[in-house]
Amino acid sequence: MSTQHNSWANRLKILGFTSLSFILISCSSDSDSDSSPPTDEQLSWTQGVFEAEGTFKNFCEVPRTDTDIDGDPWPDKVGSTLHENHWLRSWSNNTYLWYDEIQDQNPANFNDPIDYFAELKTTALTPSGNPKDRFHYTYDTDVYEQLVSSGASAGYGAEWVLLQSAPPRDVRVAFTEPNSPATTANLTRGVKILEVDGVDMVNGSDVDTLNAGLFPDSAGESHEFLIEESGGATRTVTMTSAIVTTDPVQNEAIINTGSGDVGYLTFNTFGIVDAESELIDAFETFEAQGISDLIIDLRYNGGGFLAISSQLAYMVAGSGATSGRTYSQTVFNDKHPTINPVTGQLLSPTPFYSTSLGFSVNEGQALPQLNLSRIFVLSDGGTCSASEAFINGLRGIDVEVILIGDDTCGKPYGFYATDNCGTTYFTIQFRGENDKAFGDYADGFVIGGSDNGEDVVRGCVVADDFDHLLGDEQEARLAAALNYRETGSCPAVVTKSLHQAPYKPSDVYDENSLYNSQILRDRMFLKQNLILTEPK
Amino acid sequence: MVSTVLLASACKTVDPAYAEPAVITNPSAETTAELTEVVSTIFNDRPVTLAQDVLTDTNILTIQIAEHKKDGLPVMGRIEEMPRQFQLLKHEDDCYLYDSQNDTLYPLQTVECEPIELP
Lengths: 536, 119
Fold this sequence. Notes:
By secondary structure, chain A is α/β, with parallel strands linked by helices.
């Protein structure tokens, strides 16, 4: 028997299959940390002087004695909080995208590595006044490493969206998954939640009960909901949570118009392997029909596999426009211009993939291609990461992208989840750039009346419409896209549905704001991904 | 695939090259529980959640780290790696989960399966 590890894989936890070695968790092993403990001199702090991160790696206040996800003993050694802080400091200095914007603080002044990590980021603001780094996270490694079959999770199959966090609160169903408890209960987009297990969702204060009902931990939990249908009728439903599999591509349709057929699909995540096969199926239909335009609904698509977003861009633009072009180039900080500092591999651009890659379709099959020179994207603050890479990748090869909805989230960045001593850290390590070397959209792609070739994109600001199903030609954003296609103009009356306010920490929210609940903030789809000022 | 794999729980050898891709024909809570236990074992007893219909339409089982969200958005929104995949194989009357990374076949006791044609 053999286990296929290549040279760099020895530094990384492998969660890959057979002929290809892929990483999921960066988790340096003994090979990149010194076996001898750091000296007192190395543990002293001199501002602006940094030891190699390997000097401190895996020296832990509480070393783990069990084994990692591959069955190997954790590489932890007896150390201290100070060792862990020094590792964070050196690792951030080496790999953080804006390492030179970190204020160098003495690690000995912090008693908790997580508190110290929170300081190890830029405090700069974007041109719009938002924090430049909004994506700086930690998880307990045991929590982070929970495994699922692709797309599976415990729940009802309803995506909740929080339209208003402070009383009177407004929580709606954004969409549902087929064959789920939510569809069995006839929950549809736009349904408003009035009560959960007898607790008033609109004005109540028992957030724990609301949490428990909205986000069951496992299958088999029953909770009662009082809901309000579109039109105002109310009814009580009891749903029992189940293991639900997300269906990434929904509502595929061909819309016949007087000026040609238009393809439409709702695409909610790049992060499930079935997305590859479902997109190919949809595009084969579009190709066979000879559609003249395509509308892709990415308003709730927070990203996922970059390679699938590349495939999608190829299927839109075709081989002529994409051959030899860069879909996304990974750019690390200026210490690492040519070598990925995490994998040790030579940096090379992600191409526009023209074949299946084995996610859910056998590797190497030619993808359909529509050869379109423009595409309509229905967007919102939930359009993030790999979804934005899709927009940026197409714009890099001069495929016109027209945005209908609202500005995207602004995450041209990525990181490698990195464990040290039982905590998995996420610090921004790279930026993705398109064929024109553009990747500077920290405020998202902003909808404007014209296109600046970078982060301002032509389109229409149109509020999300919870009175119509996704894919309904009367749904405001889809209707606006169809109208724009015909007339080149936006709907007469459009305003931003919610004001996007600067981020503020959770401890300054109103007492009854649902934002005070970390679980709700994390798991509920917020209208726009940024934390909003509570509507009054 | 040329290696012959000695099964952990059976005193016989099976060459994966002579096993056929297959799908489950008797999906149930029992088969899901067995698959969950096998996959959890492969990942050193990490908790694993499987959908009830895994390996019923395809012979490939894909295992990923669960999606985590912050502020309503996936933490890992730009995944540059492939997930790990396993295959359901049938040899004679027996069904196996095959881990190609470790070149190991795991015999399944409760699962019934039938071969499928791959495109």
